[in-house]
Design brief:
- The protein has 475 residues and is α/β, with parallel strands linked by helices.
- It is built from 14 helices and 18 strands.
- It has one domain (30-399): Alkaline Phosphatase, subunit A (3-Layer(aba) Sandwich).
- The protein has helices at 8-25, 66-74, 88-97, 101-104, 123-126, 130-133, 143-147, 214-228, 259-263, 271-299, 334-337, 364-372, 388-391, 446-465; strands spanning 41-47, 76-78, 81-82, 153-159, 177-181, 192-193, 196-197, 199-201, 204-205, 234-239, 306-312, 341-344, 353-355, 359-360, 401-406, 409-414, 417-422, 425-430.
- The chain has a ten-stranded mixed sheet with strand order 9-8-5-4-10-1-11-12-2-13, with helices on one face. Strands 15-16-17-18 form a four-stranded antiparallel sheet, with helices on one face. Strands 3-14 form a two-stranded parallel sheet.
- 52% of the residues are buried.
- Mean pLDDT is 93; it is low at 1-6, 16-21 and 23-30.
């Protein structure tokens, strides 16, 4: 039996109500605070290319993630949570700006493609390649700069990916402390991207920890930062590179993990199983690092006044488990865009809950601004809203639509309708009954398809008319 077709009036009313709700919710509710008025600390953890079911709490049966499972048990697990792009750079840009990639200007990757074909850049050539010289428009206002209004100290430990030149680096964008790498992927031990050293401390390149596993380094630096700033509000942003494949010239590129973690899983019987074990071991190593961060919050008696957010930057790749979703990283199907997410905020969000509401990573920026008691930047259009009432179970999500574009690939979700037009496949799907996007309803629901395409065209025009941002726009 086919799903009833909404009238055009109902369809437009849905979109109008969505816009009004998004606008109104930016006023948001007051956040709970400790006695004395100290705003909550913030710990944002992002994994890299983790699958939708690569967590025990998300139904994974083969991978050990006790600390993330515990985090879900102490807070809320989001099942209907999306990122803004099916790969890393634009997704991270949206997290830190609260804006669509097409609005903030970072709507594609800053990367070189020759290494995909075995080419190693000499230093002089690498210095003028897109990966080296592109970065997020310096007019964009990032989250740490806004939080400074409330006295926050902000640190990032892990993958930056928003530009390598000094003007693009974290300290120039509002962060106070940075240790990590500046591009899309590295070797977990040499810290090189296809032979190019890529680790930085603050504004300077460093090879001080070459040979040490990156997950351990990012854990170490995040622990240091939280210790040093325990007496003031802080934003600790920990974007791990796990379980992304290592950026090495050899193929197939491995996911690197410490031998002890690999050996903790059953011995693989094939090359494919071995690659899956590497992936699982990297996730479990990251989970242990996250466990150390959460344990320190308890030790410092900060856990009750700290918001913890975890999600994957995009859908899983390689041997990641995206079931029951269709597709993976780089694709416009659910497996490239819908990701695992959980939020813990004692006093504001009930523990042990599950939220099935339609939400996105663009809701994080306004949520954290409101939690800190600071206003979003003047004159900046945000594309999200404070999702605290939704996570607390006090209100339905006002989000009714989400739109995506990656070069020639396009997709939109309106209510439970999902439209995809891409090189990997196209169709119209009813996510309320078909989360795996297996049944194309384009022929059965031509009016719905036409209306979603019309809405996408309107959104495209809206993005084109927004104040232009580099590095890709012509202005």
């Amino acid at each position: 039996m086919s799903t009833p077709t909404p009238s055009r009036r109902d369809f437009l009313r849905t979109l109008g109500a969505s816009a009004v709700a998004l606008s109104a919710s930016r006023g948001a509710m007051a956040s709970p605070r400790r006695p004395g008025g100290r705003p909550p600390n913030i710990l944002v953890i992002v994994s890299d290319d983790q699958g939708y079911r690569d967590l025990g709490c998300c139904g994974g049966q083969t991978i050990r993630t006790p600390h993330l499972d515990g985090l879900a048990g102490d807070g809320v697990r989001l099942t209907n949570f999306y990122v803004t792009w099916p790969a890393c750079t634009p997704s991270r840009g949206s997290l830190l700006t609260g804006r669509y990639p097409q609005r903030n200007g970072t709507y594609d990757m800053y990367r070189n493609e020759k290494p995909d074909y075995g080419y190693k850049y000499p230093p002089e050539e690498y210095a003028v390649t897109p990966e080296r010289i592109l970065g997020m428009d310096t007019r964009e206002v990032l989250l740490p700069r806004v939080l400074k209004q409330a006295g926050y100290r902000s640190g990032i430990f892990g993958k930056w990916d928003l530009g390598q030149l000094r003007r693009f680096l974290p300290l120039q964008r509002g962060f106070d402390d940075f240790y990590g790498y500046v591009n899309t992927g590295i070797d977990y031990y040499t810290h090189e991207r296809y032979g190019v050293p890529s680790m930085y401390r603050n504004n300077e390149p460093t090879t001080e920890d070459k040979g040490t596993y990156t997950t351990d380094l990012f854990q170490r630096e995040a622990l240091r930062f939280m210790q040093e700033n325990r007496d003031r509000p802080f934003l600790c942003y920990v974007p791990f590179n796990a379980p992304h494949i290592a950026s090495v010239l050899e193929r197939p590129r491995p996911v690197q993990a410490p031998e002890a973690y690999i050996e903790s899983y059953p011995k693989p019987k094939s090359k494919d199983e071995a690659r899956r074990v590497e992936h699982m071991a990297a996730v479990t190593a990251m989970d242990d690092a996250i466990g150390e961060l959460l344990a320190l919050l308890e030790e410092l008696e900060l856990a009750d006044n700290t918001i913890v957010v975890f999600f994957s930057d995009n859908g899983g790749s390689g041997t990641a488990d995206n079931a029951p979703l269709r597709g993976r990283k780089g694709q416009m199907f659910e497996g490239g865009l819908r990701v695992p997410c959980m939020v813990r905020w004692p006093g504001a969000i009930p523990a042990g809950t599950v939220c099935d509401e339609f939400l996105t990573s663009m809701e994080i920026f306004p949520m954290l601004c409101n939690a800190a008691g600071v206003a979003p930047p003047d004159g900046v259009v945000l594309d999200g809203f404070d999702m605290t009432p939704v996570l607390a179970g006090k209100a339905p999500s006002p989000r009714k639509e989400m739109l995506w574009q990656r070069r020639g690939d396009r997709a939109a979700r309106v209510e439970n309708w999902k439209w995809v037009e891409s090189a990997k496949g196209s169709g119209l799907f009813d996510l309320s009954t078909d989360i795996g996007e297996a049944h194309d309803l384009s022929k059965e629901q031509p009016e719905v398809l036409e209306r979603i395409k019309a809405r996408f065209a309107e959104w495209t025009q809206e993005m084109a008319e927004a104040e232009p941002r580099g590095p890709f726009r012509d202005y």
